[in-house]
UniProtKB/TrEMBL annotation:
Residues 442-554 form the Right handed beta helix domain. It comes from Leptothoe spongobia TAU-MAC 1115. Keywords: Signal. SUPFAM superfamilies: Pectin lyase-like. Residues 34-60 are annotated as: Disordered. This is Right-handed parallel beta-helix repeat-containing protein. SMART domains: PbH1. Residues 1-24 form the signal peptide.
Length: 637
């Protein structure tokens, strides 16, 4: 559509300009020839039968236009808001660059615009106007460069126009061509997930994706006006009517109509009111006020006012859109049922459903046909899948396959999708499904979250010689062995926000790492009570490289089987090639803390001198190495 209005304007402008230019030059040439003829016959006696060469004046009241010169003139304008622009105030200067008195003027017209939101704009215009005495009309053309700052974007536009001004009627055509990047998106929050649902084994998203755009619209406008009244003081009332066409990226283009009145109650004041309507911006009321200094831009050589001459209009301000028209557009909308994708793998999420209340062992594990226990769901799962469990008795123990997450509706469960994080439906209910009298064995890259694990016949949760596990938001009670027991688990190990109570013969959390394992161990926010041994026991052996963060845990009432032990113990029983770095901070232990450095061990402690101040309970350091010592560091790097 942009090409269409450019072609339309080019054709209309070319025809109007060429025909009017030829007419104006023909009339000027005729005037020059007549004046030359008059000059040749001056002082010669007219003979009988010889036709007179005197040119009768067309307006007896008109002054001698060759005595009229154009001087600089300045205007203070205000325009109300209209279709595609805010109201703005502007300062304008009309400066003649070259002129033939009473005949033509080449001018510069500059404006600075300040809209209602304090955003700046400007217009730079160069034009030429010619007064044709024989026809009593002024013809002109101009080129313009327009700039508008919307507050978030800056747009540029080329403008051209042609006009004809007369004593009784006027007409003009203006064209506008935005250049550069004419459509730009405002900042936005991006797609918003508004709904999450299950269908079969898929996770479906409802996504609201609105983005605001600003588009600079170009086009053409044309109008014809006539003088309705003339006042005794020389003021005038004129009426104008015309049509315009707007188009730009993101629109289908629109034709509109405009009517306006313009009155000069006094020679230095112009007031205007109008109405325009189109399918893009609807109907808008247009108001304008202009103060001019001096009141007229044309004077006699004797510096007297020449306000009664048509030639004074050669300094009139240009009637055009001085603000680039901006269409505020909204793209996008609500899309429903989009399959959620894991951006880390590029694969769609697959959810295996477990409902202990309504499920059946023979079901397919879909949202519509869940299985009854976790043990019946995990054989259906592949790496990357999620086993999602409703409240109830979810069966006995199970082994989590590599790459599988086993999550319940109890905690808030979120997954990362192509549109951001999405909370799984029903999660955050606080209802933890129960795993009774069974052991849970972790695989590589696995997660266990949101279960009540009771009466495990051994270690409740365990993993050996694997990598990357997460254990969070679980309640573990009455295990015969440890609540959590991990051996030689590498990579990132997160044990967070669990409750571990009443292990009959062992610790709440036990992590031992040896061999060549590199481990990032995070034990944070756990509540550990009533266990036979320590609340937390961490041990690094051999050449293991272990970085351990133990923060904000509460260990009370532990060490029932051996009151001589402490609530939280960390041991560096490694070799010279191994290392243990510990950040112990914000914990509470009613039986204190013990950090033990065995022979040849490497043990770094963050903020060693502040340990007792940063934790509740006594921190003891036992250096039985004989060859090395604790190393105080500011951080584990």
């Amino acid at each position: 559509m942009r090409k269409n209005y450019c072609l339309i304007f080019s054709g209309v402008f070319s025809v109007l300009f060429s025909s009017s230019f030829l007419l104006a030059n023909a009339q000027e040439l005729e005037v020059e020839n007549n004046q030359q003829s008059i000059t040749q016959t001056e002082g010669t006696e007219e003979t009988e039968g010889t036709p007179s060469t005197e040119v009768a004046p067309t307006d007896e009241a008109a002054p001698t236009v060759t005595n009229l010169i154009v001087s600089p003139q300045f205007h203070l304008n205000h325009n109300s808001s209209g279709g595609g622009f805010d109201g703005f105030t502007s300062v304008e200067g009309f400066i003649p660059l070259d002129q033939t008195p009473g005949r033509n003027v080449t001018y510069f017209n500059g404006r600075v615009n300040l809209d209602n939101d304090a955003n700046l704009g400007s217009n730079v215009i160069f034009g030429h106007r010619v007064y044709v005495l024989e026809s009593g009309r002024i013809y002109g053309g101009y080129v313009a460069w327009d700039v508008r700052d919307t507050g978030s974007e800056t747009f540029h536009q080329l403008g051209v126009g042609f006009e004809s001004l007369g004593d009784n009627w006027d007409w003009r055509v203006n064209g506008y061509l935005p250049i550069g990047d004419t459509r730009r998106g405002d900042s936005s929050d991006g797609p918003q997930i508004t709904g999450v649902n299950f269908q079969d084994n898929a996770l479906l998203l409802d996504v609201l994706d609105f983005r605001d755009f600003q588009a600079a619209l170009g086009g053409i406008d044309a109008e014809v006006g006539t003088k309705l009244a003339e006042f005794d003081n020389g003021g005038e009332l004129r009426a104008f009517g015309g049509a315009y066409y707007l188009d730009g990226e993101g629109t289908d283009g629109a034709i509109g109509g405009r009517l306006r009145l313009e009155v000069n109650p006094v020679d230095y004041l112009t007031l205007g009111a109008g109405v325009q309507s189109d399918e893009i911006f609807g109907t808008n009321i247009l108001l304008q006020a202009r103060l001019s200094f001096p009141s007229s831009g044309v004077r006699n050589r004797s510096d007297e006012s020449a306000s009664n001459s048509l030639y004074t209009r050669v300094a009139d301000p240009i009637a055009r859109n001085h603000a680039i028209v901006i269409d505020h557009q909204v793209a996008g909308g609500l899309q429903t049922g989009i399959v959620a994708v894991d951006p880390a793998t590029g694969n769609a999420y697959v959810i295996r459903h477990v409902d202990p209340t309504s499920g059946n062992a023979a079901n397919a594990g879909t949202a519509e046909a869940p299985v009854d226990t976790v043990a019946n769901a995990v054989p259906l799962a592949n790496s990357g899948d999620i086993v999602y469990v409703q409240a109830g008795n979810a069966g006995g123990g199970f082994t989590i396959p590599d790459g599988v997450q086993v999550l319940s509706i109890g905690p808030v469960q979120t997954v990362t999708t192509q549109f951001g994080d999405a909370q799984l439906p029903l999660s955050g209910s606080g209802s933890l499904p129960t795993i009774d009298s069974g052991n849970i064995i972790l695989g590589n890259n696995t997660t266990l979250s949101g279960f009540s694990i009771t009466n495990a016949p051994g270690n409740a949760i365990s993993g050996t010689d694997i990598t990357n596990v997460t254990i969070e938001e679980n309640q573990i009670d009455g295990a015969l062995g440890a609540g959590v027991a991990l051996e030689n688990v590498g990579g990132t190990v997160q044990i967070e926000n669990n409750q571990l109570n009443n292990s009959v013969f062992d610790t709440g959390i036990f992590v031992t790492t040896g061999g060549n394992v590199v481990q990032q161990l995070v034990i944070v926010g756990n509540v550990i009570t009533g266990n036979a041994e320590q609340g937390i026991l961490v041990r690094a052996t051999d050449s293991a490289q272990v970085t351990t963060t133990i923060q904000n845990n509460t260990a009370t009432g532990n060490n029932i089987a051996d009151p001589a032990k402490t609530g939280i113990e960390v041991e560096a029983n490694n070799t010279a090639s191994g290392n243990l770095c510990l950040d112990l901070n914000g914990n509470t232990s009613d039986t204190g803390y013990l950090l033990t450095l065995f022979p040849d061990g490497q043990f770094q402690v963050v903020g060693q001198v502040e340990l007792s101040a940063n934790n509740t309970g006594t921190v003891s350091l036992a250096d039985i190495s004989g060859t090395t010592e604790f190393s105080n560091v500011t951080s584990c790097s």
